[in-house]
Design brief:
The complex is a heterotrimer of chains A (about 300), B (about 210) and C (about 475). By secondary structure, chain B is an all-alpha fold. Chain B contains seven helices and no strands. Chain C is mainly alpha-helical and about 475 residues long. The chains are: A mainly alpha (about 300), B mainly alpha (about 210), C mainly alpha (about 475).
């Protein structure tokens, strides 16, 4: 084991909690939307049922696809899980941490996206190609915003690993760097919406291929493959949410209560996402890059405020 | 902790980003009005004493930039029957990217040019440069006369912010800045009276840009 | 007292012109004011400098020189304008370019703004405080905008809009520069020239340089230095000739503003920085103008680009420094009178031929027995032919560049002058020679005196400046060159 790498075995419990709880996030979001729409809504555990059903089924592969196609969901989920092991929850470190792991984190996110897009292109369908192209187009500013936001956090805390960074973000630091952290958090929230394909960037419930982004990429996946994608999506919300709430909730107590607070924060975030999805419409496709470039500008501004 | 002055400066940057990214002229006018009101506080905050001159400058700025100009601009927007779109030559995303680049350039310039004297936030020069750059960019890349006036106001706001914070010992100079507003009044009159919708194609589309080589 | 009156008299007359209902009285008032202004200027020219308003206003030698050329040009313009306004058709009429109907803006407004414009320019010449200088330059912009929009058609509206927008951006940047200049002294040094120059070496060098850049760009926009000159050809081609003539004063006055800032820069020991920028902008303007002068099809725009070129020469001479500064001031005088004459002649040609196209004008020498030969003489004067003054001034600048051993710059300077010469004379001589076409006025029709005497007088002055400088004038010029050149 290299010397620079730190392994926190106590993080296993937190990761396990994330793995178990993340499908519940969809349930919360859907329940909030249903309440806003005045509906009963599907059961909170619906995503678990869906996953179980999908896993029991077999997968259908088109004869035009190659080995890239089944690899996509697996690699995508793998990357997201790897990212989860890096992500601290409630200021408590993830499984691994080392100096500069924030770049590995961003890299894993984009590798996962690449895998999904490559699988989509492999089908040879024009719709999926369109989705992949949109996804990559939005990824450019989103990634930039994310990395700049991380760098701003690193600059504000003087630490270069995600775990250390978030551990140092306490109330005192919020008092010093309040506006900077608020800007970064806004940027990271916008990135989260884009990465996890929520309104206003993308509508996960749409059934009109022309307006779909992420959903259209995964149209051809079925059975366990689709289960991987669905689950990967949940893990992604959890991971990014863990980092965002780590920034937003600066309470740092003993390990267990902090982690519990962090998890509660993620569910609060799901609540907010649900409210946002119920109260606003999807942005015009042309406006999405503008939103994400705006997020980049916010991160950049935060960084500049720190560097001055 | 950022002081109130610095918060206003950060607000200036944020509103500038909105100006670069929005397609609605109405929103642009509102953003500039916000900037004006924020800037009006600067002469009072700069040195913590409420001299009559500072109060006068502050009041005049708030009145002009925060109320009269937006009002006039909205009026002329209606009277000239302009569509409420900005219609830029450079797209909104690219404008925002320009904003990021301009921010970086401004910070670089600001670091090259440390302001003497105490009590002047280091953020001031970069923010002033950034606002000026955004204003210039807007004047060049926005097609309509109204947007050009709005962006001229942004340019002016950047200069005013610089003067109001850095030159709190020479109020006379800051007062001169208010004279610059006269131009805005002239422009607004120009739009309202002569119905200049766009810079070049204010008459027929086929008579575009007659004056050129 | 006469110094004060150079501002007060035109300001009062300008205010009065707005309310005088009778056109003839108003025109007479304008001419009388112009003469009075010239008399006051000449009186002040010999009088020792006196401080006014705690030294905020004072007529020093550079101011004298610029005030003189402004006053002379305005006098010529006033004579010409009185006749021009009489000849201008009343009411609605057809635009000669596009055939649309247009009318003039009210004559009272035109005359009033002319006089206020003169007052603002005199104010700039007198200002000894860089803050007041800025206020004066802003006032010139505001006063001159309605002049451009005299013929109320959409081309002049476009020109006015461009003029206002570009110049006010320039003014705004100049204000930013002024703020920086004030800040370079720690925000406590006043912006009075003597105070700034006394504090010279203690000024913060970085801020001072930044201030100079902004002021140069700001005032350079008004002076018509490339690449900020784009308003200039439009304004010159769309406004009445008189306004074009007065714009020449405006360019000069903006040059004075730049020189004032340079004085501070020299006092702070940063002259080299400013000189490099001035030389660069000067050559850029000359080059830019030379390109557009070749194959130019509109003779009013031809003259406009020639103005850009000459402003380039002024900046180049000032940037070379030493004797170049002196040459630059000589050139300022000569260019002022020659360009004034040329604009008035262009106005005569336009009135006779009803077209601004070079190709539409043939046989000037025969068709217009007065304006034609004057036009040819003016072309020679403009391109720096001996015995006109421009030859001497350009030679002085060239010699200064050579004696400073800046051979490459001198070479470029000569090349660009040659290009401009080719461009101007090709178009100008084509207009002068040949048989008058169908649109020419019938031969033997006498031109009015008010249209031919002012250009004649101005060209004579240009000739005189090539042969002989009166002692008081050369004294003032030497001192002015010493003050503005910083040696």
């Amino acid at each position: 084991m290299p010397a620079f790498l730190t392994i926190h075995w106590d993080a296993l419990g937190r990761i396990l909690a994330g793995l178990v709880l993340c499908p519940l996030l969809f349930g919360v979001i859907n329940r909030v939307k249903a309440k806003f729409a005045g509906r009963q809504g599907q059961p909170l555990l619906q995503t678990y049922f869906d996953l179980a059903r999908l896993l029991r089924k077999g997968a259908v592969y088109s004869s035009t696809t190659s080995w890239v196609f089944p690899l996509g969901p697996m690699l995508g989920l793998g990357c997201t899980l790897a990212a989860l092991t890096l992500a601290p929850l409630g200021g408590q470190p993830g499984l691994f941490s080392f100096e500069g792991d924030l770049f590995l984190f961003a890299g894993l996110m984009s590798l996962g996206r690449f895998a999904t897009a490559a699988a989509a292109l492999d089908t040879g369908s024009s719709f999926e190609g369109m989705g992949a192209s949109r996804e990559m187009q939005f990824a450019v500013p989103a990634e930039l915003a994310q990395i700049l936001g991380f760098v701003a956090l690193a600059q504000a805390t003087g630490a270069y690993s995600l775990a250390e960074m978030l551990a140092r973000l306490d109330l005192a630091r919020w008092q010093i760097f309040g506006p900077v952290l608020a800007l970064t958090a806004t940027a990271l929230f916008l990135v989260l919406l884009a990465e996890t394909c929520r309104i206003p960037v993308d509508d996960p419930n749409t059934h009109l291929e022309l307006t779909m982004i992420h959903e259209v990429m995964v149209l051809d996946h079925s059975g366990p493959d689709f289960a991987f994608i669905l689950y990967g999506q949940g893990v992604k919300i959890w991971t990014l949410g863990a980092i965002l709430t780590g920034v937003l909730i600066p309470a740092r107590g003993d390990a267990l209560s902090a982690a519990a607070l962090g998890a509660a924060g993620i569910f609060g975030l799901a609540l907010i996402i649900g409210i946002a999805e119920s109260s606003m419409a999807r942005l015009k496709l042309l406006l999405v890059p503008r939103l994400l470039v705006g997020a980049t500008a916010l991160s950049c501004l935060a960084l500049i405020l720190l560097l001055r | 902790m950022l002081s109130l002055v610095e918060l206003i400066l950060v607000g200036l940057v944020l509103t500038n980003l909105v100006l670069l990214g929005t397609s609605r002229i109405g929103l642009c006018i509102r953003m500039v009005a916000f900037q004006g009101v924020g800037l009006a506080l600067l002469p009072l905050l700069g040195h913590g004493e409420f001299t009559p001159t500072a109060l006068f400058i502050s009041g005049a700025t708030a009145l002009l930039k925060g109320w009269i100009f937006p009002l006039l601009l909205f009026r002329s927007l209606e009277s000239a029957h302009v569509r409420a779109e900005v219609e830029p030559y450079v797209g909104y995303s690219n404008s925002l990217l320009f904003g990021v680049a301009a921010l970086a350039i401004s910070v670089w310039l600001g670091s090259r040019m440390p302001l003497p004297g105490s009590g002047v936030p280091q953020l001031l020069t970069p923010v002033a440069f950034f606002t000026i750059l955004v204003g210039l960019f807007g004047i060049v890349t926005r097609r309509k006369a109204v947007s050009q006036v709005v962006n001229y106001l942004v340019l002016e706001n950047g200069i005013f912010a610089f003067g109001a914070v850095a030159l709190h010992k020479a109020q006379f100079l800051v007062e001169m800045g208010i004279l610059l507003d006269v131009f805005v009044a002239v422009f607004v009159m120009g739009i309202a009276i002569f119905r200049i919708n766009r810079e070049f194609d204010h008459i027929d589309a086929d008579r575009l840009a007659l004056l050129k080589e | 007292m006469p110094v004060r009156l150079t501002i007060l008299a035109p300001a009062a007359a300008g205010a009065a012109a707005f309310v005088i209902p009778d056109n003839r009285v108003r025109r007479r008032l304008m001419v009388v004011t112009a003469i009075a202004h010239l008399v006051f200027t000449l009186m002040a020219f010999r009088a020792p400098a006196r401080q006014m308003f705690d030294g905020a206003l004072q007529l020093d030698d550079p101011g004298r020189l610029f005030l003189l050329i402004t006053s002379v040009l305005f006098a010529a313009a006033a004579f010409y304008t009185a006749g021009y306004l009489k000849r201008e058709a009343k009411g609605q009429r057809q635009d000669m370019v596009e055939g649309r109907i247009f009318s003039n803006s009210p004559e009272a407004r035109f005359t009033g703004c002319l006089l206020l414009f003169l007052a603002a320019m005199s104010f700039v010449c007198l200002a000894q405080n860089l803050g007041l200088l800025w206020v004066g330059v802003e006032a010139t912009t505001l006063a001159s905008a309605p002049l451009v929009y005299f013929h109320r058609h959409h081309r002049s509206l476009e020109a006015t809009w461009k003029y206002l927008l570009l110049c006010s951006v320039g003014i705004a940047l100049a204000l930013f520069g002024t703020y920086m200049l004030a800040l370079s002294g720690g925000g406590e040094v006043s912006l009075g020239l003597p105070a700034l120059m006394a504090a010279g070496p203690t000024l913060n060098p970085v801020l001072l340089k930044a201030a100079f850049v902004f002021l140069l760009v700001g005032y350079g926009t008004k002076m018509g230095l490339a690449p900020m000159h784009t308003w200039l050809p439009d304004v010159y081609s769309e406004s009445p000739s008189v306004v074009a003539l007065l714009s020449t004063c405006l360019l000069n006055v903006s040059f004075l503003a730049i020189l004032r800032v340079r004085q501070v820069l020299c006092a702070a020991g940063q002259a080299d920085f400013g000189n490099t920028l001035l030389v660069f902008l000067g050559l850029t303007s000359m080059g830019w103008a030379a390109v557009f002068l070749l194959r130019q099809t509109d003779y009013k725009r031809l003259l406009a680009y020639s103005s850009v070129e000459h402003m380039g020469i002024l900046a180049f001479g000032a940037g070379i420094g030493g004797a170049g500064m002196f040459g630059s001031l000589m050139h300022l005088l000569v260019h002022g009178v020659v360009k004034g004459a040329m604009f008035l002649l262009a106005g005569n040609i336009l009135a006779a031929y009803m077209t601004k196209n070079v190709s539409g004008v043939r046989g000037l020498l025969r068709a217009l027995p007065f304006s034609g030969p004057l036009w040819v003489a003016g072309l020679l004067a403009l391109t720096g032919m001996p015995p006109f003054g421009a030859f001497v001034s350009e030679l002085t600048i060239l010699r200064a560049a050579l004696s400073e051993q800046r051979y490459v710059l001198a070479g470029i300077f000569l090349l660009l002058l040659a290009m401009a010469f080719i461009g101007i004379t090709t178009a100008g001589m084509r207009m002068a020679q040949g048989q008058p076409g169908a649109n020419a006025p019938e031969a033997g029709k006498r031109e009015p005196w008010s249209a031919t005497l002012p250009p004649l007088a101005l060209l004579l002055a240009a000739l005189l400046l090539g042969l002989y400088y009166p002692v008081p004038l050369s004294d003032v010029m030497t001192t002015a060159a010493r003050i503005t050149g910083g040696f």
